[in-house]
Amino acid sequence: MFKNYIKTAWRNLWKGRVFNSMNIVGLSVAIASSTLLLLTVFFESSYDNFHKNIDNIYQVYFTISRPGAPQKTGSMPVPLAPTLKADYPDVKYITRVTGGPPATVTYGDKQIQQEVNFVDADYFNIFSFPIIKGNKTALTGLNDVVLTKASAKAIFGDADPIGKTIVVKYDDQPRSFIVSGLTDNYPANSSLGSDLTVRFENSGSYKELLKVWDSRTHIVYVQLNANANPARFEQGLKPFVKKYLKQDLDDLKRDGAKPLTDGERESLGIFPFKDNHFNTDMGAVYGSPISKTYVGALLVIAIFILIIACINFVNLSVARSFTRAREIGVRKTLGAGKWQLLTQFWTETVMICLIALVAGISLAALVMPGFKAAFQSGIKLNMLLQPLQLFTIIGLFFFITIAAGFYPALLMLRYKTTQVLKGSVNTQKPGKVRNILLVVQFSLATILTICTLIIWQQISYLQTKPLGYNKNEVISIPIGNSINGLQAVQLFRNQMAGEPGVVGISGSYINLGRGKDGSSSNSVRGFNYKGHEIRTHEQTVDFDFLKTLDIKLAAGRDFSRDYAADSNNVVINEKMAALVGKGNVVGTYLPMRDGEPPMQIIGVFKDYNFQSLHEEVEPLTLTMKKDFPISYIFVRLKSNNLLNDFDRVKAKWHAAFPNIEFTGSWLTENTEKQYRAEKRLSTIFISAAIIAIIISCIGLLAISIMVIVQRTKEIGIRKVLGSSVSSIVILLSREFAKLVLVAAVIAFPVAWWVMHKWLEGFAYRITIQWWIFALSALIALTIALLTISIQAVRAALANPVKSLKSE
Predict the structure, then answer these.
(1) Burial tier of 414 (Cβ tally within 10 Å: 0-12, 13-18, 19+)
(2) What is the maximal distance between C-alpha atoms in the chain?
(3) What does the pLDDT look like over 395-427, one tens digit per residue?
(4) 5: number of CA atoms within 13 Å, CB side?
(5) Side-chain half-sphere CA neighbours of 718 within 13 A
(6) What count of other Cβ atoms lies within 10 Å of the Cβ of residue 238?
(7) Residue whose C-alpha is closest to residue 64's, from 269, 320, 333
(8) What one-character DSSP code corresponds to residue 544?
(9) Domain boundaries, the chain
(10) What letter does residue 185 receive in the DSSP assignment?
């Protein structure tokens, strides 16, 4: 019996191969797109889940009452972690974690750049990065270092690394370490990871900050005992803040900070590490956290595409039901039961879905390398074999076959045998359902189109908005740790001396945007001034910084080699000047460092966006004090051929530093990299909108064919009575045009709300314009009318004699 169902189903599928091909193409494209998107959602949601103690691991953070909204930060003072462990029995393990720019690792005559993390001995007890070779209780010694397999391979080749000594140079200081352990390479879905892991005590300024509570430099992770109550533990941190951070509380109260919800102006809390990958609202988080909105958008788009494909399937099946009505009547007359017919139709649906599933997954495998490169995703096709993904695929398969197969089948079974054998079928209800499904389909496609237009407009705005400095003609070059930053800047100045087109060369501790080294950092300093606290970003720079970046002075002067005292002077932006006082603040002294002489303001420069446009311009202080090393060289060029100039700078770099790799990039590239998430989202929305519209049009084309077939005689009569081709085309297109416009009206408020919420994440953003909605409706209407008109024109041009012939 089952074999007969398959044979009959195959014959019917071949008989209706045109419509079934449309179904398969639409479904396979939808399955391929949804597979890639859903795998990305699964991958992003799997971050850090491999840690055995994930449910008991937390990040410690501060909530501080600041003007505007309360500020959350994960940056901690050095003495906090050991004090917290000593004071609270619920703390089983605790570790501080900090990193920095890549360090230079030397072994024999080999020298390579590696990333270093500074952690406490509990690090490998908290996180499941097992030691596969060497001392299982890693980092027991202050000079121990743990390597990953990839790092060990790069440094030692195939030799056994355990017990060997390497020299690691960071903060301009070389230090010797003994390899005590080897771990597997960090998983792609890990927030934490580095090439080398050493004890936190080796981090720069550790000794100076050991008893300092008002300097916050690193992240703290804690593992609570299995029986500990996280909420009760967090509540119990209030006395800790009052005891050790009393000065902070007093300063906040003095400055008029409003109490938080717990009644304090500063509180200590814990954040679940399992949500670390989505922790975008905290000032210091390891890894590259992404917004849940981004992952949610991927999930919604995948669902949208599947819904549109299912609607296509239903509409195509309903459209075909009119051509199969007599077949059903004959089957019923010959004694076929309801369940036999349902089984037959469901078999056909399953066969179509199976073909589409295989084709869709094959298509996904084909485009996956390009998808991974475009969206920097770590997905793999074998992820589909994991239980959750496999269950999801099976569930979606049965949902699609049931949703897309049973409704048309039940619809056909309700036809009265006598009516269908006479050739008359009541199409009123199917027409209503078809129209509703078409409205839903085009509503989803229009929402995606509107979102695409707004995201594209916002990204264009971010790329073209003046930032207050010259990003088009400046090259940023990471220096690395193998040479002193100040010496490197001066040496490169000498190397470039006399070169045409060079406007300025300077150095800085912090890059602008994200360069090829991927590093991004900031330094915030707080100090008391005239009875209130001032907080400012602090940036160590070299001479000619403002000139090189074309940043305009508002008052005073820049750092100058003619003034020896400039090493203890500062230049501030207008935001910082507003905090210092009204009027001209040049000449004012700021007590920025405890126990050191005040620093004089010698100049005020115009505000520039030294952070991404997600953030408003904040107070910034430039200093030449070498608390932080110069890590980047900026070169500004003025010429008509920047490409050749870049190659020229690269050649000069290799001449000056033959052993240091050139990883320079234009600041234009650096700033654009700050909006990678938005660009990925834009690309996904554009792709999804195109796919959604194409799938919708496939269904619309098939339905228009079936509608025109049903109205063939009507068209013939109208032509005989004198109707023009254009009037017939308008008649046939009008109904579908109305449905598309209704879909657009439904989509408008939904898309506006979604995009309004998304734009709130930017301090600088566009205003949503009315023409975006009009354009999206016009796009949907134009594509729909073009799709329908092809068939409508063919029908209108057909010979009416043929259509009026009796069957």
Answers:
(1) exposed
(2) 106
(3) 877 777 776 666 666 666 665 555 555 555 554
(4) 16
(5) 19
(6) 14
(7) 269
(8) T
(9) 2-44+291-462+676-804, 57-278, 480-659
(10) P
